[in-house]
Write a structure and sequence with these properties.
The complex is a heterodimer. Chain A is an alpha/beta fold. Chain A folds into two domains: about 220 residues, no CATH class; about 110 residues, abc type-2 transporter like fold (3-Layer(aba) Sandwich). Chain A is about 65% helix and about 10% strand. A four-stranded mixed β-sheet of chain A has the order 2-1-3-4, sandwiched between helices. Chain B is of the alpha/beta class. Chain B is built from 14 helices and five strands. Chain B has a four-stranded mixed β-sheet. The chains are: A alpha/beta, B alpha/beta. At the A-B interface, α1, α3, α4, β4 and α5 of A face α2, β4, α6, β5 and α7 of B.
Chain lengths: ~375, ~375
């Protein structure tokens, strides 16, 4: 391994790249919605609506076009995601105390985006109408009616609603899987392919010693990656643990050990680097990305997939990380997740150990 | 440099024989794409339904029941817990059993009937911030419609004032179906993985087995070698593309609004880039482990900075410029344009041009680089 500088370098570069990407560039939050305007009314009132829309941080006015068809083209090309069409006579309707229809077209391709965007649009016009109602009632000398009920929103665990705060802990789980399972899945398979397995078997090396020796370097690389990720998250992106650092390190070591055992298991079974790699991709990397509640909500999945998530180690690790980063939980509250990871580790270790014995290793 | 078609044909034949002889590779080629499309298709799902809601009703009046019924009478919310005490809230939230808690205080009806505003607390689990924003919005929407009902009861006369009636229409994916958006993207990702990984590994295997030297001493020119090594995977990737697309359309009931030849042409252009990168990786790697890690190093940013899950418009401007170097970015716009918007070359020609340009540069660059390494 140490001879192979690039693999070592990549074992550090991939995690740093991932953290930088997710911290700086990737976000599921919606703002600056690219908005195109068609103003058939051309009055002070219509211009004022557009100005207010542009002043909100959620919308970014790209400009005006002549008609709806042209706005549609901008949506087709993906340049704009939202079109506001103000019909002629809009201001006149408003002045005569009528409802004035406003045509709004939203690009619905991306449901995450369009759900949130729709919420912003609705909230914007609610606020606008409320202001209109208030000034209308003031003009009439009437008091403003109180809304009967009002939602007081309190967000727990991630008070600022920053996607970064849950994505960065999740990405640590993915990094450990890449370094732990993907790299180690190749190490024993390589010995088989090169025919060096015979030589090793003839050495006075027990199965346990062989496994530990293969896993140890990757354990240290993985743990260093975790430390780098934690530091970067904290210093660069202000993602701070609410609970204990040592709990985080304990959980990471345990999860890393599970990843290593899984990688070695794949390696011993497949005996071919190409197949081991594909298997590792399918069994370790993809599930920890997809089935672990990382960015894809498990509660939205069909029952079969929800059942599968119970077998994915990352599910438990991410639960622990969310507990540490967002919810300020203690070991006692996270005990069951720790326990499941420990059971997974024991089962995989025993399987590895027995498989190697079958192949001629001594106890 | 002249190219001997017969030699290439023989190399392609050898490559196919090696590929299909390998019993362990067959499932990877045939089963893996289907698993990927099924899993991805169901996993990447931001549909808003069944928001798990716990209710703590301390008022127990007609008004409070009106509010709860507002949350019960639709598919968006699912009331999973009826609580009777404040202290039951925290354990539920901590264990992630509910997404929202609705707390109605004891004095609700007195305040409402007295013409005042009564607060209804909405506690949201913010862990997944994007989902939380949407859930809170839908909760507020329910409360707003209840307000309309209650206001009408309190003040039967209607006030006419000049107000905006926002009529929101959603284009392309009116039901906001997650699968319509993500499944076409998954097709793109499957081709990318297959073409990138198989080409680089096919060449590394020759290096590792020591057969590379044998190939070099044959009259095969480097260009012939490269073509012989890539053509089989162009073929494999295109067949996979066709099968996976057909499967996706059939299984997920996807609309395929645009033209199939346009999709095919875009795939060919996209493969130019991915095979070029595969060649490049195989030239700079000497072991499969290196090749795999390097492939990963390329795959991740291609995947993340493509707009597949994370919108490009959200990225900082500098990173947005970087995405113009990503062939996946253009391919996704094309594939989604063809699937959802039913547009073709008349709208998507800039993306086709970009793919062609990137593909030409990457592929010829890779050939040049590879030849230098061989010599």
């Amino acid at each position: 391994m140490a001879r192979d500088f690039r693999s070592l370098y990549l074992a550090f570069a991939v995690p740093i790249l991932l953290i930088l990407l997710f911290g700086y560039a990737l976000s599921l939050d919606v703002d600056r919605i690219a908005t195109i305007v068609v103003d058939h009314d051309r009055t002070a009132l219509s211009r004022d609506i557009v100005r207010q829309l542009g002043a909100s941080p959620y919308f970014k006015i790209l400009g005006n076009v002549g008609d709806t068809q042209q706005a549609g083209k901008e949506l087709d090309r993906g340049e704009a995601a939202f079109a506001v069409v103000i019909p002629a006579g809009f201001a006149a309707h408003m002045r005569h105390d009528h409802e004035a229809p406003l045509q709004l077209i939203l690009d619905g391709s991306d449901p995450n985006f369009s759900n949130i965007a729709r919420a912003y649009v609705t909230a914007f016009f609610d606020g606008y109408n409320n202001n209109r109602l208030e000034s209308f009632l003031n003009r009439q000398g009437q008091t403003v009616l109180a809304q009967p009920v009002e939602g007081r929103i309190r967000v727990w665990f991630n008070e600022d609603l920053e996607s970064r705060n849950f994505i960065i802990p999740g990405i640590i789980a993915v990094i450990i899987m890449i370094v732990g399972a993907m790299l180690t899945s190749l190490v024993i398979a390589r010995e088989y392919e090169n025919g060096t397995m015979e030589t090793i078997r003839s050495l006075p090396l027990t199965a346990g010693e062989f496994l530990l020796g293969k896993a140890a370097p990757y354990f240290f690389i993985g743990l260093t990656d975790v430390l780098v990720a934690v530091l970067m998250a904290q210093i660069l992106f202000g993602v701070v643990m609410k609970s204990s650092f040592w709990l985080m390190i304990t959980a990471s070591s345990l999860y890393l050990a599970v990843a290593l055992a899984l990688g070695l298991f794949i390696s011993i079974l497949t005996k071919s680097q190409l197949v081991a790699n594909q298997a590792a991709l399918l069994v370790t990397y993809l599930p920890s990305l997809l089935l672990s509640n990382f960015v894809f909500p498990v509660t939205n999945m069909p029952a079969v997939l929800q059942g599968l998530t119970f077998f994915v180690p990352a599910t438990y690790y991410i639960e622990i990380l969310n507990g540490i980063y967002l919810k300020n939980l203690t070991l006692g509250q996270l005990g069951s997740s720790f326990l499941v990871l420990a059971v997974m580790l024991s089962v995989l270790s025993i399987l590895n150990w027995r498989q190697l014995q079958k192949e001629g290793f001594s106890r | 440099m002249k190219v001997d078609l017969i030699r290439i044909r023989e190399l392609v034949r050898k490559e196919f024989i090696q590929l299909f002889r390998d019993r362990k590779i067959r499932p990877i080629l045939i089963v893996a794409p289907f698993i990927q499309i099924l899993v991805f298709g169901y996993v990447v799902n931001y549909d808003i339904r069944d928001i798990r809601t716990a209710v703590l009703d301390q008022a127990q009046t007609r008004e409070s029941r009106l509010i709860i019924d507002g949350f019960r009478g639709n598919k968006i919310f699912r009331i999973t817990h009826h609580l009777s005490h404040d202290r039951e809230i925290e354990p539920l939230m901590i264990r992630g059993k509910v997404d929202l808690v609705l707390k109605i205080g004891p004095g609700l009806s007195e305040r409402v009937r007295g013409g005042n505003t009564a607060a209804v607390q909405i506690l949201a689990d913010g862990s997944m911030s994007n989902m939380a924003s949407i859930r809170v919005f839908y909760a507020v929407t329910v409360l707003r419609s209840i307000n309309t009902t209650l206001l009408h009861e309190l003040h039967p006369q209607v006030i006419h004032y000049g107000r905006v009636d926002p009529r929101i229409r959603t284009w392309y994916n009116p039901n906001l179906d997650s699968q319509y958006f993500f499944v076409p993207g998954i097709v793109a990702i499957i081709i990318m993985i297959i073409s990138l990984l198989l080409t680089s590994i096919a060449i590394i295997k020759e290096k590792e087995a020591g057969t590379m030297e044998q190939l070099i001493v044959t009259p095969l020119t480097p260009l012939e070698f490269i073509l012989g090594k890539t053509i089989p995977y162009i073929f494999v990737a295109l067949v996979q593309m066709a099968v996976v697309t057909a499967f996706a359309v059939w299984w997920f009931d996807l609309p395929l609004e645009g033209s199939i030849p346009a999709l095919f042409a875009a795939s060919c252009l996209f493969l130019l880039s991915t095979l070029g990168i595969g060649l490049f990786i195989s030239a700079v790697s000497s072991t499969q482990q290196q090749a795999v890690m390097t492939t990963f190093f390329f795959l991740l940013p291609f995947f993340m900075l493509s707009g597949f899950v994370f919108p490009i418009a959200n990225m900082p401007e500098f990173v947005q410029w970087l995405t113009y170097l990503n062939p996946m970015r253009f391919f996704l716009v094309i594939i989604r344009g063809i699937f959802l918007k039913g547009v073709g070359l008349e709208v998507l020609w800039p993306q086709y041009m970009a793919l062609l340009l990137l593909g030409a540069v990457v592929f010829s660059g890779a050939i040049g680089f590879f030849r230098k390494r061989l010599d």
